[in-house]
Structures are given as C-alpha cells and as structure tokens.
Design goal:
3 domains; alpha+beta
C-alpha cells in the first residue's frame, strides 16, 4: 500500500536572557553544578515567581518574525508531572491562552515554496538536568544539576504539514536562521539551546484522517532529526504492511544504531492536569507594545536573500548560503562596502561571494569553525580581492596568499611584499617569457594553428611556470595569440 507521511515539530529554544524566567539567577552556560540556583528556581516553600520582561519581549519578537497573531491576553498555567529534575513537581508553562498563535514560515521544496503553519508559540521554564555519568565513568545512581531549571524556554509548535524528513530539515534550518537573525537565542544544539521533538504518523495515500502519532526524542542535530524521521517512517510502513498495530508512544532515537526504541506511552494533555498559575497575573499585550517591538525587527533571511539576488546579481544558491547566518551576511556586506569604493557592487559581489562560499567557508568548515571565529577579517578579504582586481597579484597567487592569511592572520599586502609576489605586468618581460614558451612548445603551437583552441592552455601554463605564477594571465593570453598569429 502507498502511504503518505505527516510530520509536526515541537522546537524548544533557550532565550538569550541574562537571568531566568521567574528569578534573578544567571543563565550562563557551563557553570559548576548547582551554582546558579536560588529558592525560587528550586521550588522552596513560600517563594513567588516574578516574570522576566526581556523573555516576553523575545517571545513577541519571535511571533512577529514568524507571522503570528500576538494575543492581547495570555495566561500562564501549571503543567503537573513528577520527574527528579523538576523540583516543584510542576512546570510553569502556557496552555489554553498562549502568547502567539496562527503563524507560518516558508520553505523551499523542489524549487517551489511551501508554507508551514505555526500553531502556537508560548513561554515556559526549563527543567534541570540528570547526570548519569561523570566523565567516562558511568554511575549506579543519578545526580541532578538544577542550573538549567527555570531558564526561559520558547516552545514553537508547527502544524502537522510536513510530508517528508527533508521538509522537516528545511523547516528547522529556516526557523533557526530566523531566531539567530532576531538575536533571541544562539540556537546551539550542543549546549541544549535548541531542542526538537518530532511527531510523525503515516496514513494511506489520499486518506484525510491522521494515523497514530509517535513522538521522537533525543535528537541532537538537524541531521539526526532527518535520519530519525526516515527510520521511523520506514518502521511504521513495515508494521502496517505486516498487520502490526501502531501505538501512540514516545520513542528515543539511537544515533549509534540508527534506530528508535520505545520509551513510554504518550501522555495526553489531560494527564498533566493543567490549571491557571495562581502566582502570576494574566499577561496583557497592547498595540503600543507590539509596535515598539516591531521597530526592533531586523531584515529577515528571506528578504535579505531576495535583496542579494536583485541588488548584487548573485545566484539564488549563493544568496541562500550567504544569508543562512546573520553574521555571514554581515561579513559579506561589510567586505563589499569596502570594495565598492573601487568598483560597482555588481562587479565586486560575485568574486567576493566566490571567495567566501568556496575558499573561506571551506577552510572554516574543515576546522569546525564559523564566520565569527574566522582568522581573516572582512577588511582583510576585501584587500585581497582588491589586489586581484587591480592586477597586483594573479588569482593563482591569491590562493597562496589566502592560505597564509588563514594560517597566520597577516594582511594580504604584507604577505605579497614580504615574498615578492607582485604580478608581472611589464609587456617586454612577458614577451620574453612567451618567446621562450613558443620555442619550447612547437607541438602546442601547431595544434593551436590548426584550430585546436584548448592548446593555448599548454602555452599559457608554460609561461606561468617560467614566471613562478606571477605573470599577468590576461597579458600572457593576448601576447601569445598575437605572436602565434
């Protein structure tokens, strides 16, 4: 039987506030266990929560960036469940009246745009962390670190409108980019700043009724989400084809084995016994406040991508790569602004894009670095490209210079001067080298004369070799053709 897939994602994001959601404890990552705690976030008797204003601002900003309706009236609720890292035995969250609803974001699918609905975005506090090992030593017991308890979380719940693991991957990529652009989170999955749970079901193709939903947890990268969904879809298809019943449950992804395994039966909302949080008043958001937040909304990735294509003549692919991270797009534009003092943006944008997307990102990815930790600044890259465009160095020499810049952080002009790498553009000197190349490569000369155009490459190569790669390639080509003719 042919089946179709239905996927919905629940994304939890740590907000980049200095203090926790309901107390003044630090949210700094990496502190000693239980060093950032107080009576409020550890649930001591008699304490009262106080809502973090910045967290509300970040939540509204996210809602506006994802086309959500911002609720004028929203309410916090107690979500009751017992777990060792939840000191109050309930979590303060939002349920019936969330802060943001009915939004969307767009993804690219097979060259077409698809809109994925966002059901709701709400604020809640994070739980603590259970430690089952110390270094490489596994423990016979578990330790609890409450540093993470109470850190403000934004839960972003999509509509079940994704039809493949690839669509889910694209949704997460686009969402992460938006969140980083607006500056509400670093979205570092290794630190737990961004976590994703996936709900997946299958049904016969054309069927309107949803299949039985299975929740997937324990996925620590977007790649893992894609792979876990792929495995689970296959597992469910095999089960239905053999008459096995799919049960509603939570399953854990095991990256080592590439499989999912049952963790527990899936809870329903009534199992949590939600009721309004009695210690927090309802949240009121008026138009004046929304307008104030809207003024702080930066140019979002899709808008910036479109501008890069229309204004700078870049391909859609190049523009998408450059705008995938705000810091990378900023790097490009800052470097371009220095180059446009010497030439037009249309002339400078493409070579700059090539150097960033191919050379610089290639080196950074190989060393597991991002643009923010690049040893080559935007000023230094602009200087290198200027040396190429004004004929001081050739493109071939530029790659050698680039390697050294990346290694030692020196400026391009400094390296060129130290190593005598200035391009030879003296016509008489190049003519001498060309004469030598022609004399020593008569076979290539005859092939070129007989109409084999690519034979000129061997002659150009011979000249460049004699010049140590310093000869101006354009002059070499012009003089070679003239002399052979």
């Amino acid at each position: 039987m042919n089946y179709e897939t239905v996927i919905g994602l629940e994304v939890h994001v740590h907000l980049k506030t200095k203090s926790k959601l309901f107390c003044g404890c630090s949210t700094e990552f990496g502190g000693e266990p239980n060093s950032n705690i107080c009576p409020v976030c550890t649930g001591q008797p008699g304490v009262l929560p106080v809502l973090n204003r910045k967290a509300v601002e970040f939540a509204v900003l996210t809602g506006l960036a994802t086309n959500c309706k911002i609720a004028e009236h929203s309410v916090f609720a107690r979500k009751n469940y017992f777990y060792p890292d939840l000191p109050k035995n309930y979590q303060i969250s939002q349920y019936e009246l969330p802060l943001c609803e009915k939004g969307f974001l767009e993804i690219g699918v097979n060259g077409k745009t698809k809109r994925i609905g966002i059901t709701r975005i709400h604020l809640e506090e994070d739980a603590g962390k259970l430690l089952h090992a110390i270094g490489s030593r596994k423990l016979d017991y578990s330790l609890v670190d409450f540093n993470r308890t109470g850190i403000p979380l934004l839960e972003i719940v999509s509509e079940p409108e994704m039809a493949s693991p690839e669509e889910a991957y694209q949704y997460l990529t686009n969402l992460k980019s938006i969140l980083q652009y607006i500056g509400i989170s670093d979205c570092d999955m290794e630190k737990g700043s961004l976590r994703c749970d996936a709900n997946v079901s299958i049904r016969p193709a054309g069927e309107k009724k949803f299949g039985v939903k299975v929740e997937l947890k324990n996925m620590n990268s977007f790649k893992a989400v894609r792979e876990a969904l792929g495995y689970e879809i296959g597992r469910q298809c095999d089960a239905l084809n053999t008459g096995e019943k799919i049960i509603q449950e939570t399953r854990l992804w095991d990256e080592d084995s590439g499989t999912t395994s049952s963790m527990r039966s899936k809870e329903e909302s009534h199992d949590y016994r939600y009721f309004p949080e009695p210690d927090l008043v309802p949240l009121q958001i008026d138009e004046k406040y929304k307008d104030l937040i809207m003024k702080g909304l930066v140019e979002l990735p899709d808008v910036r991508k479109k501008r890069f294509v229309e204004k700078f003549g870049l391909s859609g692919y190049d523009a998408e790569v450059l705008t995938s991270e705000k810091a990378l797009a900023d790097y490009f534009e800052k470097s371009l602004s220095l180059l446009t003092a010497h030439c037009s943006p249309l002339t400078a944008a493409k070579p700059l894009s090539n150097w960033i997307t191919t050379e610089l990102l290639g080196k950074l990815n190989a060393e597991n670095k991002n643009i923010s930790s690049s040893p080559i600044s935007f000023e230094q890259l602009a200087e290198l490209i200027k040396l190429i465009t004004d004929g001081t160095i050739s493109g071939k020499i530029a790659k050698t210079v680039f390697e050294q810049m990346f290694k030692n952080g020196k400026n391009a002009s400094e390296i060129v001067k130290e190593q005598g790498l200035v391009q030879i553009s003296d016509q008489k000197e190049i003519e001498k080298l060309v004469d030598e190349a022609i004399a020593g490569n008569q076979k290539a000369v005859q092939e070129y004369k007989s109409g084999k155009q690519q034979a000129i490459g061997a002659l150009v190569g011979a000249v460049m070799k004699k010049s140590g790669g310093k000869a101006n390639p354009k002059l070499v080509n012009d003089i070679l053709r003239k002399k052979i003719k």
